[in-house]
Amino acid sequence: MFYSSSIEISRSALAHNIRFLKAQLKPGTRFSSVIKGNAYGHGIEEFGQLAYTCGVDHFSVFSADEAHRLHQVLANKATIMIMGYLDDDELSWALAHDIEFYVFSIERLEQAAKVARSLQKPARVHLDLETGMNRIGLEAKEVAYATELILNQPGAFEVMGVSTHFAGAESSENHDRVTAQLDRYRRTVRSLQQKGLQIKSLHTACSAAVMAYPETHLDMVRVGIMQYGFWPSPEIYQRYMGVSTDRTDPLKRLINWKSHVMSLKLVPAGEFIGYGKSFQASSDMLIAAIPVGYAWGYSRSLSNQGQVLVRSHRAPVVGIVNMNVLMVDVTGIPDVSLKDEVILLGKQGNEHITVASFSELSTQLNYELLTRLPMNIPRIIVD
Ligand SMILES: *Cc1c(COP(=O)(O)O)cnc(C)c1O
Fold first, then answer.
1. Which atom of ligand 1 approaches the CA of 36 most closely?
2. Is 35 close to ligand 1, i.e. is its CB under 6 Å away?
């Protein structure tokens, strides 16, 4: 193969996770698949098409470039909603292709009205409310003004939704803040409806809120991390396992990141391995070189820390992770040969390398590690 590693994405695992997640919702609650950050590292194009075959028809992205990538593979088969960055230059592309987008400034709304008039097509907007996260939502005054703007220009807008985002639903530490946000959201929505604004859908919940705050589900939920098989936090996982009768994790990971043994070498006791003196062979060692390094997303902080799987055994990383190569100790593993499959993340036989172990060691969050998997590693769909 051309590439020194590849990332397999499991169709059956995704279908399983989506079934589990939909079972947490009331019938009729819409499921939006959040695929920002290159589908949390899974690849927007590959993951988007796969999710579509699993029955997903609504996608949330962060920016216009992500919307564009998904639109290229799904065209008008699914709804695409931009939750963040959209430049004035892309507004007419978005409108022309029925891409929905968040509005969190009056300028955005005024620009959208202009484009809507020139294209003679309504802008499909979601009013994103500031309820306490203090990031990007519309403030109370802006909401009032936006409502007037919309009501005064019939035909220019379709209010596809009113949204907000919780500041940390994955930890009960934030319980008061989250419930206050929901209260504030509800009050604002009621006042908008009283003014006569037609709102197609109310949505607030991310993965953690889906699990911990069922009252936030409303008309639609926006689920990211859990569809990929990861829990938003250990707390949300333990909370679920505490009430579940089944003792096994209901989520399955989609990713298997694979490479292979590029070179094997016997290193005599006492020699240092790799750059510098961070690792010294305490006995004669068999060392395998793997053609993946920090340029391929394998963090340098996993030097002398990480583990990979070879022939269903764990092999520890020895020495410093290089730009394109890392070395592992395969001394005790029977029959290791050149070209043997190596698992950097995922499973082989009964062994797993979890993102959690991986990211604990490198002190990265699940979310961060996944989204940092380089775009140019090929994603391959498997069953
Ligand atoms: C990322 C994001 C989500 C999904 O969050 P998860 O924790 O991955 O489920 C939902 N809504 C917004 C606005 C987001 O930015």
1. 1
2. no
**pTM given for the model:** 0.94
Helix/strand/coil percentages in the chain, nearest 5: 35, 25, 40
Class of domain 255-382: mainly beta
**CATH homologous superfamily of 11-243:** Alanine racemase (3.20.20.10)
The CATH 3.20.20.10 portion of the chain extends over 11-243
pLDDT tens per residue across span 190-215: 999 999 999 999 999 999 999 999 99
Q: Quote the pLDDT of residue 364.
A: 55
For the chain, what is the radius of gyration of the CA atoms? 24
Residue 187, SS3 per DSSP: helix
Mutating to test ligand 1, I would choose from 104, 165, 170 the residue with most ligand atoms within 8 A of its C-beta, which is 165
Start and end residues for every CATH 2.40.37.10 domain found in the chain: 255-382
Q: What is the pLDDT of residues 63-81, one digit of tens each?
A: 999 999 999 999 989 999 9
- Rounded-to-integer distance, Cα 58 and Cα 55, Å: 9
CA distances from 195 to 105, 124, 127, 151, 185 (A): 20, 19, 15, 9, 16
Laid out side by side, the sheet with 285-290 consists of 263-267, 285-290, 326-329
Higher pLDDT, 365 or 362: 365
Strand partners, 158: 124
Nearest residue by C-alpha to atom 1 in ligand 1: 224
And the tokens for 86? 């959209």
Which residue in the block uniquely carries the two structure tokens 């955005």?
Answer: 108
Catalytic residues: 36, 275
Q: Are 202 and 177 in contact (CB under 8 A)?
A: no
Q: Is pLDDT above 70 for 361?
A: no
Pick from 255, 319, 244, 257: nearest CA to 288: 319
Rounded Cα gap, residues 320 and 379, in angstroms: 27
Q: Measured between alpha carbons, how far is 64 from 42 in angstroms, rounded to an integer?
A: 18
> Which pLDDT score is estimated for 368?
84
Return the closest-CA partner of residue 31 out of 237, 225, 219: 219
User: What distance in Å separates the CA atoms of residue 19 and residue 42, rounded to the nearest whole number?
Assistant: 19
Classify residue 343 as exposed, middle or buried by CB count within 10 Å of its CB (0-12, 13-18, 19+): buried
